[in-house]
Structure formats: C-alpha cells, structure tokens
Design brief:
Number of helices: 6
Organism: Sulfuriroseicoccus oceanibius
Order of helices and strands: EEEEEEEHEEEEEEHHEEEHEHEEEEH
Shape: globular
CATH architecture: 4-Layer Sandwich
Protein name: Chorismate-binding protein
Mean pLDDT: 94
Low-confidence stretches: 1-9
Pfam families: Chorismate_bind (PF00425)
Structural class: alpha+beta
Strand content: 35-45%
Number of domains: 1
Largest sheet: 19 strands, antiparallel
CATH superfamily: Anthranilate synthase
Number of strands: 21
CATH class: Alpha Beta
C-alpha cells in the first residue's frame, strides 16, 4: 500500500514512518463498521504487539518488506464522515482508454497452450483499463462507499498523490481467537444469466478448484467445515460463494496465514508453486497490472484480524487512474467469453462508484 509511495519518510531500522496527517486508510468490516486510520503511518515488517490496531497492506507478490501499517490515530465508526474534510467533494469524470482485445488474445493463447501441456490447472490473468481525470477528485469516490450493500467489504487508502478505493466481495480470512473464517469466491456470470449459471459445469469446476485449494491449505491447522455453495448476487453480476470455517488447533499468526492462503486460485494459479507464481507475476507485469490488485488488505482491530482480497477497485497516481479486472481461465474457458467477463467486471465497478 504505502511502501511504494514517494512520500517523506523516516527510517528507524525495522520500521519506516511515512505519510502525513492528511493520509488515511480504512476497511469496512460487516457487523463492526468502518475501521479508519489517519497518518502518518509506521510501517512494520512483522505483526505489531498486542493491543496495537493496524492495517495490513502488502502487494500481490508479497514483496513489500513492511506490510503492516500502524496509523497515528485509529477509530471505528458507522461512516466516513470524519474523513470528509480530507477528501474532495466532486466525483471524478474520467476519460477511459479500454484495453485492447489483441493483447488479451495473445495472453489467452499462451495460457491455453500451458493448460494443454498440463503446466497448471487454473490461472487468473488480468487486464487494465486506464484513464485520465477530466474533472473532479479521485478520492471523492470515498463518498460512495457508505451507500453500498453489506455484501461488499469497502476499503481504501490515500498517501500523498497515490490512492485506492474499492468494494470487494471477497474475504481472504477473518481470525478471532482460534476461529478462522474464509470463503471461496469463483465463477462469474451476468445477472441475466443466473439461471443457466447455477448448473454450468465450467463455472462449478472453476469454483470447486478454489474450494479444494482452501481445504487442503487449512486442513493441517484443524477440522475444516464447508458450507453449501450458493449464488452471490452483486447487482449486475453473480458469483458462486462457499464459506469455510476452521477451529485452529494452534494459530501460526496472521503473517503466516496470509502467506499460506494468498493468492488463492480465485486470483492466482494452481498448482501454486514457485515456478507458476513467477510466471503469473511476469504475465501481470507485461499487462501493466497494478501491484495492489488482488493483494491482501486487512485490519487488526480489538485482537481480531479481518483481511480481504483487493479486487473491484480504482487506483490512482495523480490524475492517472487504473481499473484492473481478472478472470479465471481453465481448460474449458473460451477467449471471447472471458473477454466479456472482464468487461462486465470493470463496468460493475464503474456503476458502483457512479462514474
């Protein structure tokens, strides 16, 4: 989140202090409210000690040496009113430049060859729509968040000229005491295709790949209980969702749990070995995918941790905005169908933010 921002900072060995009192971070936790922090932020390599509320904001490839961000002030509220004087008032008008199909076609062709060769079972490439602000303020997107349904974990930050505002439906995991709750969110269709989606074998298999991965990852830590697969409706699109719970026999800590689960095949690659992760990283770099897209974003508050998968967001630097979207590709996937899914996801984000 903040480690790649060229803002004034001070280095004290194991921690860096970055940003100013105008900077902020937040995550809405269902049933709790908006967890909000104001800068400057102390950036730490390891989870802070007991009683310290902090944000976790690494990058997708887990290369941020200090993913923990401890704000100068922290509070929980029903809304984001306290941030109003620190952000713009007018929603931005953005001139968008859509990604090109030819580039996507080339990526899909390479992925299809790899799938046929058995290199991996599933991978999630992404494309990026870029834009320039014509008028208004990008951080004013924050004003839209309290209006969104509880199904979304709304989140964001701003440090200097960089920022991100999003509304993700995907929880990475929540940890309270010895209980860990997570979810598989995979399989996507436009809402008007909900009826055939429910029994679509390709969509079901794509979803069950993620479920299987999570069960295998968590089984060594305790008995995993999986709830029934259900359809999650999010306005213009629907997803399959399966909730999973596990009572941990022992907790390895938040840092270890993040590394154990991220990235799931919902945003990553399966098998999740070093070679495939490197390949995915190279693919994302070629396509200009922001480092924070799909990255873990979370908050430790009151002794509990809540983490989400950083999707469905708009990020920016100055007046340059980026809107990334990814889609899971398996052997049954078709190039044009996945291209349409990418467009549906990007348009759903624009509708959420009224832009």
């Amino acid at each position: 989140m903040m480690s790649d921002t060229p803002q004034p900072s001070t280095d004290s060995g194991n921690e860096v202090v970055r940003g100013s009192a105008d900077d902020f971070a937040f995550l809405r936790v269902p049933g709790l409210g908006f967890c909000v922090g104001r800068g400057p932020f102390r950036e730490l390599a390891d989870e802070p000690g007991d009683g310290v509320d902090a944000f976790y904001a690494g990058d997708f490839q887990m290369t941020d040496p200090r993913p923990w961000k401890v704000p100068a002030s922290f509070w929980v509220a029903d809304d984001l009113t306290a941030l109003a004087k620190h952000i713009g008032e007018t929603l931005p008008e953005i001139s968008w430049d859509s990604p090109g199909f030819r580039q996507w076609e080339g990526v899909f062709s390479k992925v299809s060859r790899d799938l046929s060769a058995g290199r991996y079972e599933k991978i999630v490439p992404a494309v990026v729509e870029s834009g320039r602000v014509v008028s208004g303020d990008l951080d004013a997107l924050v004003h839209r968040l309290p209006e969104l349904p509880e199904e979304y974990w709304t989140y964001g930050y701003r440090v200097g000229s960089r920022g991100l505002v999003g509304a993700t439906p995907e929880r990475l995991f929540s940890l309270t005491g010895d209980e860990l709750i997570t979810m598989a969110l995979a399989g996507t269709a436009p809402v008007e295709r909900r009826a055939p989606f429910v029994n679509d074998p390709k969509q079901i298999r794509e979803h069950e790949i993620v479920v299987r991965y999570l069960i295998d990852a968590l089984d060594p830590l305790g008995e995993v209980v999986r709830e029934k697969r259900e359809v999650m409706s999010l306005g213009s699109i629907v997803h399959f969702r399966s909730a999973l719970k596990v009572k941990l026999s022992e907790s390895p800590g938040v840092d270890a749990l993040v590394r154990r689960l991220h990235p799931t095949p919902a945003l990553g690659v399966l098998p999740r070995n070093a070679e495939n992760l490197e390949l995915l990283g190279e693919m994302r770099d070629r396509l200009g995918v922001p480092k924070r897209f799909g990255a873990p974003f979370g908050v430790r508050v009151g002794g509990s941790f809540h983490g989400v998968v950083g999707i469905r967001h708009i990020c920016w630097r100055g007046t340059h905005a980026l809107l990334p979207a990814g889609c899971g590709v398996i052997a049954e996937s078709e190039c044009e169908n996945e291209w349409k899914e990418l467009a549906i996801k990007r348009e759903s984000v624009k509708r959420l933010f009224g832009i």
